[in-house]
Amino acid sequence: MAVAAFFDLDKTIIARSSTLAFSRSFFEGGLISRRSALRSAYAQLVFQRGGIDHARMEKMRAYLSSLSAGWDVQTVRDIVAETLHAIIDPLVYDEAVAKLEHHRNAGHDVVIVSTSGSEVVEPIGEMLGANHVVATQLVVEAGLYTGEIGFYAYGPAKADAIRKLAISRGYDLAESYAYSDSETDLPMLEVVGHPHVVNPDRVLRRVAAERGWPVLQWSTQVGLRDRVGLRSRSVYLAVAGVAATGTAAAMAVWAWRRRDSGASTWTRRVPLPLGR
User: Fold this and answer.
1) Does 10 qualify as catalytic in the annotation?
2) What's the CATH code of the domain at 98?
3) I need a surface site. Which of 6, 13, 162, 172 has the fewest CB within 10 A?
């Protein structure tokens, strides 16, 4: 049977919240107000300091999902593609990249399992050379987000998704690996035979000590394109593919501006007023 390595994303592979990291880009793209951008920046600060417990995580989920109501899906994808490297590259842990390479070299599938939305996680997964991605899915109607969540990749739902993926892909979970920083990912860690905790919060550190799980401290942030250029040609090609997509989108925006220089680029691409 095949073996997989399941990685949480935020504060495990990268040093911040992947969704909140794009708040400035969403503001500059006309999707959120200055007030919402500042509120997201504050939430990012709290998240980085380890102050996000289950209750706060639920509030953040409700806030972000309601904030997205009426957003144009393609606009969000374009913004993420255009700003992906500038935002995410400097946040990746060097130790995480080394561990991803270790599992790929061992013939293991790499799977990113994140509570962040798929529009953010999927391009990051491609950039990192992941085989599969499990992420929160927002409901879309007529190309716009409704503000509702179809699948919330959080807590036990992560473990359920891993079990389903193991059945479809033939993974031996007893021989597979998982990495996370948060107590909320205990179900995900418990579902595999080789759980590892990374920069753990207080509760997860205590559980790891009780159960004898390895504790990893990752702290070195590295520019991903420089890192993979030296170590992994396959991931470098994935990065180049995402970069090319972002470049093509940027060129399309430039051409649009040439045709109608008197209009605001992003606000014209969002058909509904945000009311914020």
Assistant:
1) yes
2) 3.40.50.1000
3) 172
